[in-house]
Write a structure and sequence with these properties.
The protein is an alpha/beta fold. It is built from eleven helices and 14 strands. The chain folds into two domains: 191 residues, Rossmann fold (3-Layer(aba) Sandwich); 96 residues, UDP-galactose 4-epimerase, domain 1 (Alpha-Beta Complex). A six-stranded parallel beta sheet has the order 3-2-1-4-5-7, with helices on both faces. Bound molecules: 2-amino-3-ketobutyric acid (AKB).
Length: 318
Amino acid sequence: MSDTRILVIGACGQVGTELVENLALRFGNQNVIASDIRDEASFDVEYIKLDVLDREKVRDVVVSNQITEVYHLAALLSATAEKHPEFGWKLNMDGLFSVLDLAKEGLLKKVFWPSSIAVFGPTTPRENTPQRTVIEPTTVYGISKFAGERWCEYYHNRYGVDVRSIRYPGLIGYKSLPGGGTTDYAVDIFHQALKSGTYECFLNADTSLPMMYMSDAVKATIDIMQVPTEQIKNRSSYNISAMSFNPAEVTEEIRKHHPNFTISYAPDERQKIAESWPASIDDEEARQDWGWNHEYDLPKMVNDMLHNLEKLHFSNSN
Ligand code: AKB
């Protein structure tokens, strides 16, 4: 029987919904609790309404459920945080401290917290961005993620907290929708391709960004938490990478399955954010330290997305 007891905070988001499913398969439904700020949510595991900013309640949930590991996913993403900079900073930073402090007290054995490619900025080398390089983020989200990375390393060095982190690229999955990110177009485009056969993209045709299929992102998240602690040599956050593409390239790939699909471009304020981020990422350290390896490239991801969304659309229309 597993003695790992997991709490996922921010479980209703794009990563959370799939992560909970996978953690439950691995550790048993009874050992995983999903939490978020919604009153109710439908999971196969216990769900608790929880605001990560309510430190007392987070503490209560951890203690009363003998939680050993927290996956803390709650955050405002890049585009939403630009609309609410103060709250973006508050949620992204105070939420992290709420969890790190419980680990510092010895109430948690391990913490997972995601950072993002948003830590990089316009002065960072854009191609094959190294693990260690110029980091001057220009969004609130990027600043909060970069500060969070420094605090994770600090809590590890100073208090021995076993915190592990990866820098998510744009994430693409069919089971849930993203909310408030700059990379969201790469999910919307599939839904519109099937619904209306046409898509108006909020980024320009040639804006390349690092992307990853959700099953690879979930695998990375669970894998980094399983390896022995001495293998995690980087306690801020690891670069991870799978594929890079721009809106025109993913459109071409979708057209191989749906030749009549059309796209138009109407870049908005997210264009500037995207231009400040890397086009591709060097993730050699993650591959060497804890064996990170991706499975999905662009053609395989597009094929799987369309196949699964078509099944869903078909079953919904019956
Ligand atoms: C966003 O677009 O804000 C996120 C991210 C890259 O962290 N998907």
